[in-house]
Amino acid sequence: MKTMTCKELGGKCEQKLSADSWDEMVSVMTKHVMDKHPDVAQKMEEMHKQDPRKWSEETRPKWDAAPEL
Ligand SMILES: [Zn+2]
């Protein structure tokens, strides 16, 4: 399992989010921003429409670099 903060994932708070896989982290983060940061969720959705891979390309290396707990 790995833990990253909302901020590291492109959000705006220090809440720690944990997941066992990248795919799980994407869904955990998506749920978190929809609950807590509707404005970030909207920005991510717009970014996704323009370039569906942009967020993953920017964020996946941070996931890969995060230590396994
Ligand atoms: Zn957050």
Structure in words:
With 69 residues, the chain is mainly alpha-helical. 58% of the residues lie in helices and 12% in strands. The protein has 3 helices and 2 strands; from the N terminus they run ββααα. A two-stranded antiparallel sheet has the order 1-2. α1 (22-36) crosses α2 (38-50). It starts with a strand and ends with a helix. The model has no long low-confidence stretch (mean pLDDT 96). The structure holds zinc ion.
How many domains make up the coordinates?
1
Q: Could you tell me the radius of gyration in angstroms? A: 11 Å
Number of strand elements: 2
Q: What structural class should be given to the helix and strand makeup?
A: mainly alpha
Please state the average pLDDT score: 96
Order of helices and strands: EEHHH
| Strand neighbour order, sheet with most strands | 1-2
Strand content: 5-15%
Extract low-pLDDT stretches: none
**Principal-axes shape call:** globular
N- to C-terminal distance: 5 Å
Number of helices: 3
What level of helicity do the residues show?
55-70%
What are the main properties of this structure?
single chain; 69 residues; mainly alpha; two-stranded antiparallel ribbon; 2 strands; binds zinc ion; Putative small metal-binding protein; DUF1059
Compose a concise summary of this entry.
The protein is mainly α. It has helices spanning 22-36, 38-50, 54-65, and strands at 2-5, 16-19. α1 crosses α2 (38-50).
Topology overview:
Blueprint: E1 2-5, E2 16-19, H1 22-36, H2 38-50, H3 54-65
Antiparallel strand pairs: 1-2
Helix pairs in contact: 1-2
Bound molecules: zinc ion.
The site of zinc ion has 8 residues, from helix 1.
